[in-house]
Design a protein that fits this description.
This protein is of the alpha+beta class. The protein has one domain: Alpha-Beta Plaits. Helix content is 32%, strand content 30%. It contains four helices and four strands, in the order E-H-E-E-H-H-H-E. Strands 2-3-1-4 form a four-stranded antiparallel β-sheet. A hairpin with a 6-residue loop joins strand 2 and strand 3. The chain is globular and about 35 Å long. The model has no long low-confidence stretch (mean pLDDT 92).
Length: 101
């Protein structure tokens, strides 16, 4: 199993807007080989700190997703988001290999 966290900070007053975007996301990733689970996490002490949690069968499945045309399409749409402050946020990515359950 392979876990990827993508953490980003948005202004606290825009957190609900970003959460709404994720509620209405395309869900294309759910069709990707090896995809297991998506969660959007909000830090309970810092409303503007959000983390995308993704669970994959393997690192190879995740890499295949990142190299896919669907991934590129989704991330190109993000760059065109009307709120350029949000569109310009660069997340911190952390990757984990599951070594015990």
């Amino acid at each position: 199993m392979y876990i990827v966290h993508s953490t980003f900070i948005v202004p606290s007053e825009k957190a609900d807007e970003v959460i709404s975007i994720y509620h209405n996301r395309s869900r294309i990733v759910e069709k990707a080989k090896g995809f297991q689970r998506f969660l959007l996490l909000q830090n309970e002490n810092k409303a503007g700190e959000l983390t995308v949690f993704m669970e994959w069968d393997s690192k190879e499945d995740f890499i295949s997703w990142v190299r896919s045309e669907d991934y590129k399409k989704i991330h190109e749409l993000e760059k065109k988001y009307p709120d350029q402050e949000l569109a310009s946020i660069i997340p911190t990515i952390t990757k984990f290999k599951v070594v015990a359950t």
